[in-house]
Structure formats: structure tokens, C-alpha cells
Amino acid sequence: MKAVVNRIIPFSSVDGPGNRTAVFFQGCNIDCKYCHNPETRGICRNCGACVDVCPTGALSYREEGGICYDGTACVQCDACIHVCPHDSSPRTQEMTPEEVYERVKRQIPFIRGISVSGGECMLQPDFLKQLFSLVRADGLTTLIDSNGTIPFWEYPGLMEVTDGVMLDIKAFDAAEHRNVTGVSNETILANAVYLAKHAKLYEVRVVVVPGLYDAERSVKEMGAFLVPYRKTHDFRIKLIAFRPMGVRKQYAGYRVPDAAYLNRLAELLRDLGFRDIMIT
Amino acid sequence: MRDISMERVEETRKNILSIIKSPSLTHEQKLTNLANQADSLMEVLDLPEGLDELLNQSIDTKCICDLAEGHAPVRPRYIVPDYAKFMKEGCSFLQLAPPTDLSEALNHLLIFYKHVPSVTNYPVYVGQLDELLEPFMDTVDEATAKKLIRMFMVHMDRTILDSFSHANIGPEATRAGRILLEVEAELEHAVPNITLKYEEGVTDDDFALEAVRCALHSAKPSFANHRMFSGELTERYVIASCYNGLPLGGGSYTLCRLVLGNIAKRASGIADFKENQLPYVLDIMARYMDARIRFEVEESGFFENHFLAKEGFIRRDRFSAMFGLVGLAECVNLLLEKEGMTGRFGHDEKANDLGVEIMDQIKAFNDHHENPYCEVTGGHFLLHAQVGLAEDENVSPGTRIPIGEEPEELIDQLMVLNRFHKYFPSGTGDIFPIDLTVHRNPEFVLDIVKGAFRKDLRYLSFYSSDSDVIRVTGYLVKRSEMEKLDAGMAVLQNTTGLGLGASKNGHILERKVR
Ligand code: SF4
Ligand code: SF4
Question: Is the CB of A81 under 6 A from ligand 2?
Fold first, then answer.
């Protein structure tokens, strides 16, 4: 079993509680306008456009076809991902769960767990199940960061080895959600309910992008929808300010929300009874 | 006492006059410098042959450095009084009965600090503050306690004009400890330095997290591996000055340091370094330290006459000495270069292995060298990874990886450090500026501390990449004060000047942010 891994961050302070190793998988099934790492979206088609722009010769053609990446020559200039016509990156790596596990193991005992993200990591549920079983045997916890378009309830085996999910709700209104991401949010909301009921909802994430959708209305409605499930299990709501860094040119023009607006959204949630609200 | 030349006397007289007339020194600094000039005329130590050629050299050739301890030590370098004894019994020399409530306890301590000598003339250790104050916490309400402790900390910051001064807390959580952390997070002071003695399972997580939050505001406390220190020095140890592990109720007679990079310059290659140059310098430095210690114990009269010793707040047989070193990184890199080999300390297995071999050799030497007055540490000195001086250029503190060359990933840096921290019971440490986002996830830092201490790292410091108080090499300074000094304004604390020097020569503002 193999999956394409975009990168592995040994110590991450922003992908769940404590210190965690974060694994980013390549490939995504939706198209969020504000995606801040668009180079994780597509799978490389070996077109070769990146080879010519690499200033250090880190990229070359393989004899047997495909692109060869030499990490020791790379200077992380990102020219390759900017030129890639397929929202991909030549710096990815095909790995087995065992290989990813080896890269996680080095960080023990400095980490308390791992978080998997993407792209959309739920496109590889079997891989995740295998990886999670390995790291759990070492006492590590496992978190999934997902766009929620794939029904978690269809993977009970994976859920058994998953400690929690960080779920994006990119807009509460179905039409607005479609505008932001290209798809409806029906499954996502059903996932939220399913995960909350099974005490697997660690965090709900909302990216606030003024001008793209009505965040105030969305947060209010989402809050009302989710609040009953706090009874079974308390979860955090994270309000994330849009930042243009990394965003594709055609979408980078949105405004960054100010602190007062974000605080107002948090206040709305607090009024509904949510306690663990984080603004970043 | 040996004679000296009239030339040297004349030169000293000139120095004295220029100190007296100096426009930039405060009165206290003048007195300290005048005393140093007087001391420099003395020749009373039995110096080992060959020392002069290793010691009295320019900064880029000297192999031994005695860190401005002078020619005739009038007191041990670092003094660590047993303040708990003072709290319990009072002090007859200072005419103080034991304190009965929190105000008295704090006032007593402030008085006592003014009578604790050291190489800086300020106390390098101000006590295990949580333990000292906890018994008095019931004598006032919480708000009053906080106010009093706050005033106490302000008093220290404004009167102990040197951040080589250290308070300890932990490993157990206490009310007094929590208030100290709260107050320090608000005050963002440079003085005193604070260390939390931390042990997983003994120190509550929520107390340790309070400490992390405080560190992200004020660059302290640092975290000391309590399990390791108490295993080596027993529970009666303290962290003093920068990060020096020392016996409580004693201290360190002296601290000299090997400048390993400069010793490597004398060597033709690795074999010559290990077989000839290093053993030669080790032997001379050890005998130099023996001579200093002998004078302090047998001739200076300090231990017979000072009230700290007479009343038992310190005991002669609780003193040891610190055998220091700097520049392992530069030493290893230069030796590899001389051998025509590639590899950099901190990055290549070969280079790190050579570093370990050198440390093993230094440790073996120290384990065999006996000093009759270091009973408390088995008759041997304690190895110490010295943090450097403001004027050091191209000399990395102790066994640190040079700033600017830190491995890309923190995990790789930690896995190098864990090979070196174990050698230094009298202190070593590493410093990590931490990204702002961690303010929301202090558990991130605590996880690293827990992992590091399981892996036998000894001492870690963190500060937030944007905070005003920052850690220079071991001590703290305020960025804002350095800026004032750089602009030619007078500032209160002596260490601000050292910090400014280190930020220019030692690139401390360019550490890799984690
Ligand atoms: S980031 Fe891409 S383009 Fe830049 S050096 Fe690395 S491989 Fe080459
Ligand atoms: S990474 Fe992109 S540009 Fe490079 S070969 Fe693959 S698809 Fe083409």
C-alpha cells in the first residue's frame, strides 16, 4: 500500500494539542478558493514544466519516465510549485505506511501524537488505518484534519484507531459552501454530527474570508446547529483568519478580517454556550 | 608574595586614574574596577609553569581563560547560602531574628542579599523562593501576598544590577511558586534569572504550563532536569548564576575555561590534539585551579572570618570548582579541516562523534584529577559548558551548535544535544526562541521538555521570538535596554552591556526560531 506524501513536519505546534508530527498527503477532492497550499491539491502528471525552472538542478527527468527530485540540491525556492499547471509539486514522495511510521518514530519521546492532513487525507482511509495502528502501538495519539467530504461512518475500522478529527466547515449555507469549495456541505454536516456523537470531534475549523461568504450568518447558524452536541462531547471551534500567503493569484485579493470582526464571531459562539473558542 | 616591575605599577596607576575619571562608569562600577586594579598587582598564587603562554594571550589564541577572577581571590567565585537555615534561625551578624510573616521574610531576604559576595559582587543565588516563602503564605491574604512578592521582585531587579543572579522554584507546585510565576509574567524583568526544577510525574502539568506561559512572556523560568541534577549532586543542589548546578550551602571556588578552538589551532591534526595538546592544557588548567583554591582555603581567611561561613550558611566542605570549556564546535570543525575531512559539528555523525571523543577524554582527565578541597564532589571538579563572554568572537558557548548553523529541524538539534548535556553536572544549556503561535499551545513546549529530559538533556530555555526580555547566552537582558545603551544612554544593569556585546559578536538575535 502506498500514498503520495507532500511533506512531513517533525514538530508542529499548530496541528492539534501539544507537539505533533504532521503528515501532509497529496491530492484533494474539492477546490477551495482560499486554499493556502494549492500545491497539495493535484497529483503530478510528469509534464516536466518544473524541471526547466528549477535554479539548482534539483529536478531532472528519470530515465524510466517521471521526475526525479534531489532534496540535497533543493533550496526551497518554490519556483517549481508556482509554475506547476496541475496544482502539484515535484517534491512529493510515494511512501508506505511503514515508511511514514519510521519518519514519525524519530520524534519519540518529544511528540504526543501525529496529525494527518493534506490535500485531503481521507482519500487514503486504508493507509491512515494502517499508519495509525502502527503509531498507536507506541502510545501516540492520532488526529485527522479533514474537509469532511468523505463519510467517516463508512470507515469504522479507521475510527477505532483515531482519537479525533479536526473538521472544516467552510460555510453553513449549502449554496455558499458550493461557491467557496465547488461542492455541497451535506456530508460534512452529517460528519460533524456523527463525529460529535461518537466523541471524535476534536475541533471545528472555520476560515473567515470577508467578501467570499457571510461568515457572521454562517457562524451563527453553524453554532445553533452544533450546540446540542456539546452535551455528549466538548469540542473546540477555531476561527481562522484568511491570509493571502500561498493562495493562488486569482484568489489572493480577499481582505484579511480584523481582530474586532473575529472577536465578534467568537462572541456569537460564546453566547450560544461554546467555551473553547480559538482565534488564529 | 613575588615582586613586580615598576613598569607594571606605573601602568596600573594610569589605569586607576582613567577609571576615576571615566564619564561612563557608575560609582559602583568604578569601585569594582578599582578593586580589580589593586588585585592585579598581586602575585601570590603558585602558578604552574607554562600557564602564562596559554592564559595571557589575545582572544583568538588564548587556550585558558580565568574569566576575570583576579590574581588573589578574596572570596569564592560563586556562593550559594542556605537561605532556609536563615529563615529558620535568623542571623546574629545581621541582627535578625527568624521572620514571622511574609513581609518580614521578604525584607529579611532583601537585607541578606546585600551581604552575599560573588565574583560580580551581587548574589548569584537568591534562594529556592517557593520553598522559602510557602510557610508564610497563610500570614496574609492572596492579594496582599501577590503585592508583597511583586514589590520584592521589583526591588531585586532594581538593586541586583547583574542578571547572573538566580532564583529557583519547583519541582513541586506551591502557592508561592504560582504567585512568583504570575508576577514575573507581568513584570517581564531581566533580574533575577529563574529556573524551574522539573521532573515529569513530580511537577504537575498545570504548574509546568504556567511556567511555559511565563517563559513566553519574560524568557524565564528555564527548565532544569531535576532527576539528573539530583542524581549527581543530591537533592541539596541549586541552579545559580547562568545555569550552574552547585551544592547548596557551598558553591564554587573558581571557574576557568578551556578555549577548545584555540587549543585545536596548536594541533597538527586529531592525533596531535588528543595525545599532546589537549592533555598539556588540561593539566595546566587543573593545576592553575588547584592553586587558586589553595589560596582561597588556606590563605585568604574567607572561610574563617566571613559571617556566612561562621554561622554555617555556607560550609567550606560544600564547595567544589567548575572546570569549564567553550568552543567544542569550532574545535571539531577545525580538526576535521586540518585532516582534510569534510563535516560540520552538529550536522555530521563523524563530527559529532569526534566531539563525543573529546568530551570523553576531558571527562576521563577530570575523573582522575584530585583536589583535596572538593570533597563534596568526590574530590573532583565539575565539568561546565561555559556560556561565553561578550567579547568572544567565533567561540560557541560550551558544546552548542553555532548560531546560524542550527539544524533545520529542532528534532535533529535535540538529538545532537542529547549526546553532550550529560557531561556537565555544573551546567550546560540550550536556548530556543519560539514562534508566536506557540502562545496558544504551551503544551508544545512542555512536550519538548518532557521528551528532552527523558533523553537526558539537562537544561532548556525558551523565549518568544517577539518578547522584550531575551536570553543572551545564559543571562537575560531587555532588548529595549540594549537599544538605549547602543544609543549612548546609561542603563541600570551591568549585563545589558554584555548583552549588547554578545548581540554584536555572538549573533544572539539570529538564533533559529522554533
Ligand atoms: S523548490 Fe523546486 S524549484 Fe526550487 S530548488 Fe527546490 S526543487 Fe528546485
Ligand atoms: S510537479 Fe507539476 S510541473 Fe512538475 S512534472 Fe509534476 S505536474 Fe508537471
Answer: no
**Is residue B277 within 8 Å of B362, Cβ to Cβ?**
no
ipTM, 2 decimals?
Answer: 0.91
B178 touches chain A (CB under 8 A): no
Tell me whether the CATH fold assigned to A3-39+93-279 matches the one assigned to A45-83.
Answer: no
- Residue B385 backbone phi and psi in degrees, to 5: -90, 95
Task: Give the right CATH number for A3-39+93-279 from 3.20.20.70, 2.60.40.420, 3.10.100.10, 3.50.50.60.
Answer: 3.20.20.70
Q: Can you give the residue ranges of every domain in chain A?
A: 3-39+93-279, 45-83
Q: Are A248 and A37 in contact (CB under 8 A)?
A: no
The pTM of this model reads 0.92
B437 CB neighbours in chain A (<8 A) are 13-14, 280
Which of A208-212, B10-14, B491-495 has the weakest average pLDDT? B491-495
Write down the CATH number for the domain with range A45-83. Answer: 3.30.70.20
Q: What is the mean pLDDT of residues A138-148?
A: 97
Residue A84 CB contacts under 8 Å (≥ 6 apart), including other chains: A39, A42, A44, A49, A50, A90
Tell me what the mean pLDDT of segment A143-171 comes to: 97
Pocket perturbation via mutation, ligand 2, pick of A7, A67, A78, A83 by most ligand atoms within 8 A of CB: A67
Query: What CA–CA distance (Å, rounded) separates B186 from B198?
Result: 22
